[in-house]
Amino acid sequence: MIGRQCPGAECRRVFRLDGAAFDAFEGHRLYCPYCGATAPPEEFLTDQQRRYAESRVARAVGDWLSGELARLATRPRPSSGLSLTITIRHTPAPLVPLVERLSRRHVVCVACDLRYAVFGMAFYCPFCGLREPLSVFDENAQVIEQELLLPARLRSVVRPEESQILREWEELGLHETLVTNALVNAVSAYETALRGLSHQAANPGADPGRRAVVAKEIGNSFQNVERGRECGQRIFGFDIYSCLSSPELDYLSQMLQARHILTHSSGIIDDRYASEAGRPTSDVGQRLCLRDGDILRLLQLMRAVVVHTKQQAGL
Ligand SMILES: [Zn+2]
Ligand SMILES: [Zn+2]
Which of 189, 216, 255, 268: disulfide with 140, CB 3.0–4.6 Å? Predict the structure, then answer.
């Protein structure tokens, strides 16, 4: 596996490519698996590889220069009255060590069959850019589930005398941050999957001009059950939620709304959320508390909608 880094100024995230697959790759562009930025392969060198390459060049230039100067150097001649001595002291330029982190998650693209590795959530294949929306959703759901397991795993490996770090973790509310983050990521993975399927259905030829039209039509419809249903009806011609029971659909709707208030109003319950979640009006103004189980149940429902949409649409 060889490391690559997104050339996008905002992203700059690192991923890895299967060495043999990269050597055999004949494409003229790579894609960032995290943000989808695309550029010629040589622009994807990591900062470390770039520094290493520069240090190799600096050493080669230094070696060449010292060799040339040594040829010019003269030795003192005892027979002549006048002598000039040039002494060359050359220390080779240090090479920057090339140490690459071990990757966390290996992926084989179902479209091009090439292998790569990513850290955390990823949405694009670095080789072909395209990804099958359900596989991407499943991979990202797995990452979210593993993140949620992290505190329990930490507790199982940290010795009691080191538990100060866990207390600090809890005092800082990091577990809550983790659950909130998991909800935001779950909604993002779900929206991306439904958007991907929508593009496949409404723009099978992947025409770039048509893509912009479809993207505009979708907007952020899938962040809301009602708007998502209308958008799905227009694009697929069926109800994308018909696979869910009424309580399941209510739960999905509540959690989408929960993401909205966590992102936009620090999780303070408003009238709309209270009414959609069937909570008493006395809860308005209180802060929403989510648990790991909420996210796990949500991921199952989201997956059911994505699978149903893919199957019904014949994609
Ligand atoms: Zn990127
Ligand atoms: Zn691919």
Answer: 189
Q: Residues 178, 146: contact at Cβ < 8 Å?
A: no
Asked whether the beta carbons of 96 and 52 are under 8 A apart, the reply is yes
Given this model, what pLDDT does residue 103 score? 47
Which regions of 110-263 does DSSP assign to beta strands (E)? Answer: 115-118
Q: Look up residue 6 and give its two tokens.
A: 């997104």
Q: Is residue 303 part of a domain?
A: yes
Q: Is residue 151 part of a domain?
A: yes
Q: What is the pLDDT of residue 156?
A: 82
Distance 151 CA to ligand 1 centre (A): 28
What is the domain range of residue 269? 133-313
Residue 234 resides in a domain: yes
Tell how far the Cα of 122 is from the centroid of ligand 1, in angstroms. 10
Look at the chain and report how many structural domains it folds into. 1
In degrees and rounded to multiples of 5, residue 282 shows phi and psi of -65, -20
User: Residue 129: nearest ligand to its CA?
Assistant: 2
Report residues of the chain scoring pLDDT below 50: 98, 102-103
Q: How far is the CA of 124 from the centre of ligand 2 (A)?
A: 8
Ligand 1 centroid–CA 5 distance in Å is 8
Please compute, for residue 108, the number of CA atoms within 13 A of its CA located in the half-sphere on the CB side: 2
Q: Is residue 63 part of a domain?
A: no
Structure confidence by residue, pLDDT tens digits, 18-38? 999 988 888 999 999 998 899
Q: How far is the CA of 214 from the centre of ligand 2 (A)?
A: 22
